[in-house]
Amino acid sequence: MKVSHSTTILLCAAVASAHPASFTSEKFQSLISQKSLLSDLKAFDQIASNNNGNRAFGEPGYIASVKHVRSRLDKSNRFKSWTQKFETPSSNIELLSLTVNGKSYSGKMPLGWAGGEARDLDITAPLAVLDWGSPGTCEHPYYNNNTDTTGKIVLNRWVNCHNPGKHSPHVDMSSTPLGYIFYEDNYEPLGVSKRSISNMVKRTERPFDFTYMSRADGIELTSRLHAGEELIARFQLKTSPNKIESQNVITETKAGDPNKVILLGAHLDSGINSPGINDNASGAALLLALFDAINQGKFKPKNKIRFAWWGGGQKYLNLGSSHYVINLTKKETDNILLYLNFDMVSRGHFGVYDGDGSRYGYYGYPGSEIIEKLFEDYFTSMGLPVRPVHWHGDSDYYSFMSPDLAIKPVGGLHGGDGLLDDPCWQQTCDNLANANVTHLEINTKAAAHALYVLSQTYKEVIPLVPYNHTAAQMAGY
């Protein structure tokens, strides 16, 4: 990463001043309990088991997850805790029918443009297949773009490489089809994750209707099309309006300067087909462990510390956090010094968000590079490899990097959703057995170290500058 020599000296001096003999970062880290981390992971896993195998936004498992977090927080007299209610439009599916040449196929949940909801439709059109231009689809995820898709429903092979920001397929939109049917071709069977598809659709910047089917059905229809058979597909969908009511859970220290707030967050919900233990009960448990450590009363932060467990982080990417930011007053926004995000931190690599943009070319607001270095130096001191993490815009940190919401120094940890990082990402096997509690403990202690330094010495490390919307836009944020 790129950090100037003067910045490094400043950071080292600030870290040193943050270590009074009475209570050091190491002592704060020693308050992190692996037993407590495991206990919370077990609780979230049991919640999923009791609620149709998930803790998804808008589902009973999410409400139970909120209650679990509140039950942990409400016992403290050193913190003030509350829930923030919000709602979002949704749809009930009344009819979902997919037929090809009169034969019924099992279509999965329809998904809208850029995470939007389903709408009523009845499409009948010839079925066309888009073939890939390379067999190495995870490294070269591009179609053969010669297929005319105008006026057709396109059958498309979705390769799930578990890395939507780097290797996800790019749909050719040079000719606009009436709709898409996706099926997965390799690695993980059947279920295409909403986050992957939503990210891809968002990049096209064109709305279209799509659903997805099983791998076996997709391969069968592809083979028939390659053999020259003419196939006519009909996709019917009827919906009724609905709304999802949900909550963020927030707690903050009663002590500390209220005009200087360190905010840490993690999305609390899982995917609809997953218990979501690594993604993201691990991040939720990390915050609870930090809460427990502070609640012992030995750590005396100079700045106020606020924790947030966000709703809608999985289904809508950053719904709960954006609602939170939108409803802040200007003074409340200015009082937030920085935001730290924790996502998928119980396995994978020791991933640190690329604050200075030296790896991927997209950097955070000034101060983000200092946060990156705090984490990077910690892992390096432990003899652990560090991997920069790209800002994909696919987690709650985005709410604090957007000119339309808030611009703050941002950082945090992300273990990765690549196949090798987490083969159970968005799958039913993302249960308790998928988590490595030792890995989570290391990440939690790294977070404790960063929190200790930033909450004690923030003014010396990163200057506090009130957010200026015009200046941020001129700077390209």
Architecture per CATH nomenclature, i.e. the level-2 architecture of the largest domain: 3-Layer(aba) Sandwich
CATH class of the largest domain: Alpha Beta
Taking the alpha carbons of the first and last residues, their distance comes to 20 Å
Roughly how many Å is the radius of gyration?
23 Å
Category by helix and strand content: alpha/beta
Number of domains: 2
The helicity comes to 25-40%
Strand portion, in percent? Answer: 15-25%
Number of strands: 15
Instruction: Name the average pLDDT.
Output: 80
Looking at this structure, what is the CATH superfamily of the largest domain? Zn peptidases
Which consecutive residue ranges, at least 5 long each, have pLDDT under 50?
Answer: 3-10, 12-19, 110-116, 133-144, 161-173, 186-206, 469-477
How do the SSEs run, as a string of H and E? HHHHEEEEEHEHEEHEHHEEHEEEEHH
Report the biggest beta sheet as strand number plus sense, adding barrel if it closes: 11 strands, mixed
Using the alpha-carbon principal axes, give the shape: elongated
Number of helices: 12
CATH topology of the largest domain: Aminopeptidase
Protein name: Peptide hydrolase
Cofactor: Zn(2+)
Domain Peptidase M28: 248-449
InterPro entries: M28_fam, Peptidase_M28
